[in-house]
Amino acid sequence: MVGLVDTDSFAKWGAHLLATAPAHWRLELLVVATPRSASPTQLTAAFRGLDARLQHLAARPPEPVPVDAIVRQLRDDPPDAVLVACIGPVAELVIDQVHRRVRRRPVLLTGLPGISFPAKWKGVFFRARADLFVLHSHREVRAYRDLARAGGTDPHFALATLPFARSAVGGAVDGRTDGVRDAVVFAAQPSVPADELDRRRIVGWLVETALRHPEWRVVVKVRAASGEHQTHREQYPYPVLLPADAPPNLVVASGPMAQHLDRAVALVTVSSTAVLEAVARGVPALTLTDFGVSRTLINEVFVDSGLEGDATDLVAGRFGTVRPEWRHDNHFHPPTDDDWVDRAESLMRARDDGTLVDRPAARRSRGGALRRAWERKNALGSDDRSVLGVVALGLGTPVRAAKRVLRRLRGLVQPTPVSTAVVGPPRSQRDRVPAEPSRSQRDRVPAGPPPRG
To answer: DSSP 3-state assignment of 7?
Structure first.
């Protein structure tokens, strides 16, 4: 199996999913060259902790390879399967190119990194022609199956335990063996929340936490250094928003999340997948609900999880643990429920027998070669140097601008009813029924001051 990755989060997810494949699978991983490809530093962090078949990637991450060169390699020496772990437009392009240019095409697997609930149509739209779409919870599989059927697409979803939600088994990462836990780690997200004022509010809470708890390091864990790209664009980076007089125990750091969790008292976020990694390691966590619970915040999945909290909880040092009844449906199902390997191998046998069936695309728009050139240019940007791509860009840009103007005008004439994005009010740890903390939690989490108010 060949894995294709591009951005930071897809590189981490794709590589670690491959690492969970059966021992008899021979694995290879390539980085697709796009304007948003992960940097060598991001790739090194993403590939940390891989098994023997892929561990060399962390020491020397592969150089990005142009799409055309990758397709030629797949055509000249077709593997049994390809995992397309790329952002939507790039995934659609690669899947289309394999269908068009690889005569005896491999089985095409794809999927989404991290938390994928609620289901989003774009995720299906770009990847509809893949043979198997990997998701990571029973809840996600149900939601995407319903969405696909409603959109006229046949369901093709499989279940795999999220690699980062696998229980950590003994030992420290990167050689740490001292057992010191002194950090509250805030997992920053590039676009959640998106508003600058909201992000400044979070910075204020982190400053207050650092001042209230000088015994802790409050770590703003970022996924990209200045100038590096991420899967989602970040308009207001947290390092820029930190005040000049921030307390010395409030720090910004990058690197592998596992390394930070090794010394974490708790993990705090709005909705980062890192919270699942913390839960798997037994680290208390807090998903901030001060901005409500909504689809745009990607935190609906945490309703009734036991992890919800607010700024008052954070400053007070009050963190949550997962409710047992939440686990099975949300990323912590038994490994025996996973079916992605069996289904992938079944598809590989169908390929060998010549009975592998091509799936139709969800895209219905026409335009032939020129339209494909436009989608290619949209996916690859400056990494597409084709003449037809330049022509398509010149013709397509004013057409797209005109469509946007028409949509705005239509919205003025026939305004769409505004529906609030918030599906639930803020929640806090104080809403939970008081329970005596376990001995392990008492040992992990220093007691905080009494809650304010």
So the answer is: coil
Whole-number pLDDT of residue 351:
97
pLDDT value for 167: 65
Respond yes or no on whether the N-terminal peptide bond of residue 193 is cis (omega within 30° of 0). Answer: yes
Burial class (CB in 10 A: 0-12, 13-18, 19+), 275: buried
**Rg for the chain, CA atoms, rounded:** 23
Q: Which residue has the higher pLDDT, 142 or 49?
A: 142
Q: 2-161+333-353 — its CATH code?
A: 3.40.50
Beta pairing, strands 285-288 & 308-309 = parallel
Of 265, 87, 63, 58, the closest CA to residue 190 belongs to: 87
So what's the architecture of 173-326+434-444 in CATH?
A: 3-Layer(aba) Sandwich (3.40)
Q: Taking residues 424-437, report their average pLDDT.
A: 66
Q: Which of 67-76, 427-436, 437-446 has the lowest mean pLDDT?
A: 437-446
Of 195-204, 389-398, 422-431, which has the strongest mean pLDDT?
195-204
Q: Considering Cα of 157, then 160, then 161, then 164, what sign does the dihedral take?
A: negative
Assign 320 to helix, strand or coil: strand
Greater confidence (421 vs 382) lies with 382
Instruction: Give CA–CA dist 1/106, Å, rounded.
Output: 9
- Residue bearing tokens 């036991």: 306
User: Could you tell me which residues come within 8 angstroms of residue 359 by beta carbon, excluding any fewer than 6 positions away?
Assistant: 128, 129, 130, 131, 154, 156
Q: Where are the domains of the chain?
A: 2-161+333-353, 173-326+434-444, 368-413
51-57: long-range contacts at Cβ-Cβ below 8 A with a sequence spacing of 24 or more? Answer: 51/19, 53/19, 53/26, 53/27, 54/15, 54/18, 54/19, 54/27, 54/29, 57/15, 57/29
Residue 315 pLDDT greater than 90, yes or no? yes
Closest to 251 in 3D by CA, of 183, 181, 179:
183
Spatial separation of the C-alpha atoms in residues 215 and 284, rounded to whole Å: 17
The answer to whether 3 touches 83, Cβ cutoff 8 Å, is yes
Dump the DSSP string for 134-163. Answer: EESSHHHHHHHHHHHHHTT----EEE---G
Burial (Cβ within 10 Å: 0-12, 13-18, ≥19) of residue 420 = exposed
CA angle 152, 155, 159 (to 5 degrees): 155
Sheet with 250-253, edge to edge strand ranges = 250-253, 217-221, 183-187, 264-269, 285-288, 308-309
Average of per-residue pLDDT across 286-313: 93
One fold for 2-161+333-353 and 173-326+434-444: yes
